[in-house]
């Protein structure tokens, strides 16, 4: 039976455990099973449960708790779990659940929003300029793209966002 | 041994509670009052009045009597909420150093955390008088949708009042904690919080002690005050008809009418008709003092129905956000003084199709939950699982009968037959937790024993028995990216504490400083969210652009407050980033000045409070 020592042991083995091992579920576990196991572990490893313990155990609990939440977030979402299975096959034990969201849905690149080839060309330039923080220049390119794609509401919305941002920056 | 108290720091009233001998109890002042009006008044002479004494001065000394601070605390000066409020308060709001809100009184500008600190000092004085021992530690509650700035400001206020803050706790979580577990393994609870000035609805799911906020919605300008104003309006009409006095021409008369309306409304919660008389209005206007105004409960309900029903528009919004039908809610818990109106309970029942739970006094429940959390977190209190004191339960017999008590709690499962090597703590922490927060009340029957849980890999046993309720961060945390957009760091509803590490780099050759702006909120556009401030990473070793790598860890701690630290990946140098946060004074000098201003004012003696 684990004792108070085991939170430190869990902490020390964090970097060697898969999300499945961390949540103590088999790789083919159903969502319900994962949820139940997560709830028990999260409560047992929450730093509040170590409120009266030495600081190193509290710190270990905080780190373990955060990782358990991370594991649950990935394994409880079908998409992320599929991504994780592929990552695990490559030997990666963790994935950044939000990494792919750095271009979150609805914030797709301007190029994907543009419809006609000429609009796409301007939009591509605008994407590059935005990446470089050149907002004014990007605005010009989006305006040109919109001239080619007159009824593209999403592109128009992005242009408005850009204009607002520029006006907020006093430009 | 000291006590750790729980404090509900409200917009209109505050309540302080403590767990004594395992029972959560609201603490009353020497005159027997448990509600402390969140009002601070600065009469000439240096001492500060808080509570009923301050409330009494609101009419006579409006410029120096500060109220409703919670509406504005932690909000940057330039925000529309602050700018719109400037015209509505009789006191003098100013921009405080650091970009927050201050209020000028007798030539001194106090920041809002300082004003709240006076209220908290009063709570502390009430608690110390009631308990007979010094009180230093507290759990303070905040609305679920408070952002980092508002939480930090509240924490600052508590520190200024001389408290060690054990936890900043979400109000609906506190209410759920006070209400105790249902015995079901999963339950959806709607916390319907209708207070003096604000309405909040929060839909929580609690499964095995892990709390999830499914949705929260609110109207920050909808509360009992609106009902008072509507009643005062009817009184003004009557006054105009009978005495040709236009209360709208004299703010002081209308203010008095509002106070009288509130009293009338309260009386009509327990009686079918009530009367206000002109003698409360004026002593020096002869004819006016003979005026009287009668109202029946039915008339009050007609006057307030429209206001009460606005809450259900907000409820529908929350249910839609939670993708829930009304039937999906297992329990509706009433919180806040306005839910004491019979009309409100009736409309909630009609609207949700089930009788709301009002077993615990709706004005005390949040503070009681806070003291339960305080006793669970406090190092100096014996480990017992608190219960709610009988005097906090609603006593009207008809209510006691009709209100469905939660089903009996499952008993503590016996530890499975264990090898002798097991330590005495082998009883799994989960078993303790299921019976956790507010354990079985004495009058509840003992349920038949459940079979012990199936053998599973045992999670680590915490060093001590410590029931845990896991809370979440209410708002997404984002950093700004090119073009004014957001990159998501931490999603709303992530259990806390949590953290996210991102790597940042330089945009120019030899650049030594990188600035990252951080915001909380649901929008993908940075400007639509609340900017928390700028993280400045300085002292980066000169390198070609894009090669420096600084790993920045954004943590949201158990109080829901953000902490940031940064590490240069190449050099491995661990160095806390300099974080400048708008709206709160970051430097030691400003905090010292705030402490000095607190020290300059003694609180008026508790015995000087009015008896009514």
Q: In words, what does this structure look like?
A:
The complex is a heterodimer of chains A (171) and B (612). Chain A has 171 residues and is an all-alpha fold. In chain A, 64% of the residues lie in helices and 0% in strands. Chain B is of the alpha+beta class and 612 residues long. Helices cover 27% and strands 25% of the residues of chain B. In chain B, strands 1, 2, 3, 4, 11, 12 and 19 form a 7-stranded mixed β-sheet that branches. A 5-stranded antiparallel β-sheet of chain B has the order 21-20-23-24-28, with no helix packed on it. In chain B, helix 4 (148-160) links the parallel strand 11 and strand 12. The model of chain B is unreliable at 395-456 (pLDDT under 50). At the A-B interface, helix 1, helix 3, helix 4 and helix 9 of A face helix 12, strand 21 and strand 22 of B.
The major sheet of chain A is characterized as: none
Assembly status: heterodimer
In percent, how helical is the residue content of chain B?
Answer: 25-40%
What structural class do helix, strand and pairing data of chain A support?
A: mainly alpha
Q: Using only CA atoms, what is the Rg of chain B? A: 26 Å
Mean pLDDT of chain B: 81
Number of helices of chain B: 13
Q: Largest protein interface?
A: A-B, 52 and 50 residues
How far do the termini of chain A sit from each other?
65 Å
**Overall morphology of chain B:** globular
Q: Uncertain segments of chain A of ≥5 residues (pLDDT<50)?
A: 100-107
Proportion of helical residues of chain A:
55-70%
**Cα gyration radius of chain A (Å):** 23 Å
